[in-house]
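[Discussion] Sanity-checking designs against the backbone

I'm trying to build intuition for which residues belong where. Below is a structure token string of 181 positions. I'd appreciate it if someone posts a full sequence so I can compare it with mine line by line.
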């Protein structure tokens, strides 16, 4: 599904949040690879589950055509600096919910980009009668957990010893859900 572009100005930085287009596929492939190498908060290490340009083109096409998917990009001066996806389910028993994920280049943290991608996604979900948004977050990512709680997500469970990070320790994953009011 597509949304209308929205412009934000936070701490002197102006950026646009809009639906991804096929023209973004090449840059998304590069940016995802960079983001995966910047933090351990995501599921992948740099280079794992690599998505090439045609792969992103297919994702964007699918998400644009589906009323239960939303693929957003955050753009600063014509450069994509982050993105988010809401992915719905094809199975009837799960058709009422979407899974949310977000990633942003580290140089662009603390400008409200993640917050505004989340808010835009929540607004889209609510206006499209989606009954539940879910997400997974690393237990040590306190900033993200607090952001999600502030926007109505609640902890639904913990996956114990779910991720092995570079310090050779296992970490829990927090499962969160949001139900429209």
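Best answer:
Here's mine. Compare freely.
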């Amino acid at each position: 599904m597509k949304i209308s572009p929205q412009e934000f100005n936070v701490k002197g930085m102006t950026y646009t949040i809009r639906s991804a287009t096929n023209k973004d596929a090449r840059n998304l492939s590069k940016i995802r690879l960079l983001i995966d190498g910047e933090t351990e908060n995501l599921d992948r290490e740099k280079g794992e589950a690599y998505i090439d340009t045609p792969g992103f083109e297919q994702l964007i096409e699918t998400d644009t055509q589906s009323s239960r998917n939303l693929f957003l990009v955050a753009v600063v001066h014509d450069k994509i600096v982050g993105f988010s996806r809401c992915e719905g389910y094809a199975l009837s028993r799960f058709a009422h919910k979407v899974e949310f994920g977000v990633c942003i280049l580290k140089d662009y943290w603390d400008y409200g980009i993640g917050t505004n991608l989340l808010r835009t996604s929540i607004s889209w979900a609510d206006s499209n009668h989606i009954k539940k948004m879910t997400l997974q977050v690393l237990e040590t990512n306190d900033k993200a957990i607090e952001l999600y709680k502030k926007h109505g997500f609640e902890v639904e469970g913990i996956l114990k010893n779910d991720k092995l990070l570079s310090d050779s320790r296992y970490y829990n994953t927090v499962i969160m859900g949001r139900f429209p009011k």
